[in-house]
């Protein structure tokens, strides 16, 4: 179903939902970190994760940032994959990487995991194109 026009980000070409002031999170909507000079998005306590706005994992001896239920990904935090009998953590669309969550490399025929930081290439193809 199409999104109502008043709920779509006003940034040119963007189709994401509005969070605040007519903008989605990617284009400046939502609360900002209260630390002086920081423009990152606030998570908890009015601060971004760099300035203390995250919770520490509840697992004994773990100092990673908690995702959901108070635990980091390594200790079971995050949303579980919605595929029946799968106990992995969902990456996107409620699915883990094995069941179709996350991005794939843009090279035809390559099914490896890709990242925005590698311009949607897998690490292998990104290194090839860097040369």
Plain-language structure description:
Residues 7-29, 57-77, 78-101 form the WRKY19-like zinc finger domain. This is WRKY19-like zinc finger domain-containing protein. This protein has 131 residues and is largely without helices or strands. It has 3 domains: 1-50, no CATH class; 55-97, no CATH class; 101-131, no CATH class. The protein is 6% helix and 3% strand. The protein is built from 1 helix and 2 strands, in the order E-E-H. It has one helix at 123-130; strands at 103-104, 113-114. A two-stranded antiparallel sheet has the order 1-2. Strand 1 and strand 2 (113-114) form a beta hairpin. The longest helix is centred in the C-terminal third of the chain and has 8 residues, at 123-130. The radius of gyration is 18 Å and the shape is globular. It starts with 102 loop residues before the first strand and ends with a helix. The mean pLDDT is 87.
Which key phrases capture this entry?
little secondary structure; 3 domains; two-stranded antiparallel ribbon; globular; Znf_WRKY19; WRKY19-like zinc finger domain-containing protein
* Low-pLDDT windows of residues: none
Cα-based radius of gyration, to the nearest Å: 18 Å
Largest sheet: 2 strands, antiparallel
**Can you tell me the number of structural domains?**
3
Strand order of the largest sheet: 1-2
Q: How much is the average pLDDT? A: 87
Which structural class matches the secondary elements? Answer: little secondary structure
Share of residues in helices: under 10%
Q: How many β strands by DSSP? A: 2
Query: Would you list the SSEs in sequence order as H and E?
Result: EEH
Basic shape? globular
| Count of helical stretches | 1
Proportion of strand residues: under 5%
Gap between N and C termini: 44 Å
